[in-house]
Design brief:
The protein is α/β, with parallel strands linked by helices. Among the domains are: 78 residues, Helicase, Ruva Protein, domain 3, CATH 1.10.8; 270 residues, Purple Acid Phosphatase, chain A, domain 2. Strands 12, 13, 14, 15, 21, 22 and 23 form a seven-stranded mixed sheet that branches. It has a six-stranded mixed sheet with strand order 3-16-17-18-20-19, covered by helices on one side. About 15% of the residues have low confidence. InterPro entries: DNA_pol_a/d/e_bsu, POLE2. Belongs to the DNA polymerase epsilon subunit B family. It comes from Lachancea lanzarotensis. It is found in: Nucleus.
């Protein structure tokens, strides 16, 4: 049946005011300015015509307008600029692409949306597609055009519009407000780009504490009722002693509230650091208290270093002015979707739209689902990450790169990540033995890389190259000389890479770390030897030193006894030598320990400024709240591993060269699958 055509009319703002007041003001509590009301009247008169009073679509439009306005947190006053932006959003959601579909293609589109689309997606998940087909058949019996109308009402998505690389300098700065439990966008100041302000250093650890404390209070163990939080509950050695139920519910206590409550048990959350006496102290925004860790028993499977935020349980004695710790653990972790739901689905990276002082960008749930479905269709997309320490000044590294590029050139990935350092010696202002400055030699190394890349046409034209600097790369190496430097590290200066930029069509010189948004996923690229740093500064608890030595002695005696049995008897089956299912290898345990510490702390570098200094105004780029979908870590001090914790897949690429093999990791976002590859040269 043909639709009736309504003629556009000019509506006076006063005529629209009663309806707008009833919907926008009375129902949603919004105040309409005169220019905003005039803009609404112009759009409604153009779209709904002379029947705008009787047409129910006018009321539905105002409802949708108010919902989007509140969803985007535009404030209480509706002005003309806000009306124009929300109307633009309404048009995008209503499906402006329907007019771009030719009429002669309706039949073919309908077939592709039913049969061909089903056959194309059946190979990915047959069981789900069968259920979808059955339910779709029942619905189409009532309305044959439902699928076609739904497809036409949704605009087509371009995956490149949701592909974005964000370095530390362009990352949006959201500050958490513990009073309102919301994130506030901090506007950039030109002075901050030159030198951070002292206030940023004061609030550096407080910002981390506020985020973690709010995450802890969201945990079900801290919601009251019969649930009780006990840090020792995760320790296998104390399973027997925890069988008796505890009637008192544990709650967090501020340090300032310990005064006058002598001999009572408390659970504290605070920053662990050394005090002026050389002992340990715990700090929170309300104060600090000295810790007695002689009898403290830590939860297993985590590192404890100065600078991390921990939960401690114990008894406070006012006579000694000390808190005697009984148990220690990290704050409980949280999945990415739960964190995003708690903070209102904020778009931290600004992939969909950059936030401003008057507008906070948020991730639309329906759009997120559509992006996830689009990910599953793009099965040929791959992200390849090479191992670290790609020393371009060494010939065998260049030969390994040639072999890897030759293999990848047949089927180029969408992104190829190269991790530094890109020179074997730190760049510093001295002359080398060949009377060539270190900076000139560094530039010549990248020129040689550009010459090598020019031999692979498909790679340089189809692949987006991403370079992450290391400790030996400029300009940080000028000060640190390859040692621990300030974080985040800026990208490699453009003075050294002119030829690479001319050869490659798409190049991104990222900072360390760099965030990578791909449709509904967030990837974090990090180059740092975290494993060694955690081991060097890990705290040894006196109460566990003796038990660890005894357990090591028992393990060695048991191993000697089993080896003696092997020599004395001839086993007919290898089952006697196979480990139990619960027993994990040392490499897996070390990887889990590293990943759990980082993700539970909600920070890539949970150390004090004396161990790992950070740029005060850029500390927010190191936060892991919410945790990323994939954490790609290049830690040359640890072996390759793949660990999934709280839905975050963590990958360590380790070193690029291992013996005579070039190693890299291939990640497929459609399946969230990781493949470790080696190319011998």
């Amino acid at each position: 049946m043909d639709h009736l055509v309504t003629l556009p009319v000019k509506i006076a703002p006063g005529l629209l005011r009663p309806l707008a007041y009833r919907v926008l003001s009375k129902k949603y509590g919004l105040n309409i300015k005169s220019d905003g009301l005039a803009a609404l009247a112009d759009y409604i008169g153009t779209r709904f015509g002379s029947n705008w009073r009787k047409d129910s679509a006018t009321f539905q439009f105002l409802e949708q307008f108010a919902a989007i306005w509140e969803q985007q947190e535009r404030g209480l006053f509706i002005d003309k600029n806000g009306v124009d932006e929300v109307i633009r959003e309404v048009k995008e959601r209503s499906g402006s692409t329907a007019s771009r579909v030719p009429k002669q293609d309706l039949t073919s589109s309908k077939k592709s949306n039913t049969l061909d689309g089903f056959l194309a997606r059946k190979t990915q998940n047959p069981s789900v597609e069968e259920d979808t087909l059955e339910s779709g058949t029942q619905n189409n019996a009532e309305n044959p055009d439902s699928i076609l109308q739904s497809e036409l009402s949704e605009p087509l998505l371009d995956w490149q519009a949701y592909y974005k690389l964000v370095d530390a300098q362009s990352h949006q700065n959201f500050r958490y407000d513990p009073a309102s439990k919301q994130y506030r966008l901090k506007s950039k100041d030109a002075k901050d780009l030159i030198l951070p302000r002292a206030e940023s250093n004061v609030t550096l650890f407080k910002a981390r504490y506020d985020v973690l404390r709010d995450r802890v209070l969201r945990n079900e163990m801290f919601q009251g009722g019969q649930d009780t939080f006990n840090p020792l509950s995760s320790m296998s050695n104390f399973k027997g002693s925890l069988d008796t139920p505890v009637t008192q519910t544990m709650t967090l206590t501020q340090i300032k509230n310990l005064l006058g409550r002598d001999g009572k048990r408390f659970l504290l959350l605070g920053l662990l650091r050394t005090n002026v006496k050389g002992g340990w102290s715990l700090e929170d925004p309300s104060g600090s208290v000295e810790l007695d860790m002689t009898q403290a028993i830590p939860a297993e499977g985590m590192f404890y270093v100065p600078g991390c935020i921990i939960l401690v349980e114990g008894i406070y004695y006012s006579a000694a002015h000390k808190f005697f710790v009984a148990s220690v653990t990290h704050p409980p972790g949280e999945r990415r979707d739960e964190t995003l739901e708690a903070v209102g689905n904020l778009d931290f990276l600004g992939v969909h739209q950059l936030s401003s002082s008057s507008y906070i960008s948020r991730i639309d749930k329906d759009l997120k689902i559509r992006l996830h479905l689009l990910e599953r269709e793009l099965t040929d997309h791959r992200v390849v990450v090479l191992g670290g320490d790609i020393f371009l000044d060494q010939l065998h590294i260049m030969e390994a790169l040639r072999k890897v590029f030759d293999k990848l050139n047949d089927d180029p990935p969408i992104t190829l990540v190269l991790m530094g350092s890109f020179t074997s010696t730190p760049i510093f202002p001295v002359m080398s033995s060949k009377n060539i400055s270190a900076t000139t030699a560094y530039k010549n190394a990248f020129d040689a890389l550009a010459l090598l890349m020019s031999n692979f046409d498909r790679l340089i034209n189809e692949t987006n190259f991403v370079f992450i600097p290391g400790a030996n790369d400029p300009w940080t190496s000028m000060v640190s000389l390859g040692a621990t430097a300030i974080w985040p590290q800026r990208s490699i200066p453009g003075n050294f890479v002119h030829r690479v930029n001319r050869i490659c069509k798409k190049v991104f010189w990222g900072s360390n770390p760099t965030r990578f948004a791909y449709l509904s996923q967030e990837l974090l690229l990090v180059r740092d030897d975290l494993n060694d740093r955690f081991k060097r500064h890990n705290i040894l608890f006196p109460a566990t030193i003796g038990s660890d030595a005894e357990s090591d002695l028992e393990d060695s005696l048991a191993q000697d006894f089993s080896m003696q049995q092997i020599h004395d008897k001839e086993y007919e089956s290898i089952d006697h030598l196979v480990k139990s299912k619960d027993q994990k290898s040392a490499g897996v345990q070390a990887a889990r320990k590293l990943v759990k510490t980082i993700l539970d702390q909600g920070h890539i570098s949970p150390f004090t400024s004396f161990i790992r200094p950070v740029v005060w105004d850029l500390d927010h780029t190191l936060h892991l709240s919410p945790i990323p979908t994939v954490l790609i870590l290049c830690d040359t001090s640890a072996s390759q591993f793949e660990v999934t914790y709280n839905g975050c897949k963590t990958i360590n690429t380790s070193t690029f060269i291992h013996k005579r093999a070039a190693r890299y990791v291939e990640y497929r976002p459609a399946f969230r699958k990781v493949i470790q590859e080696e190319v011998y040269f």
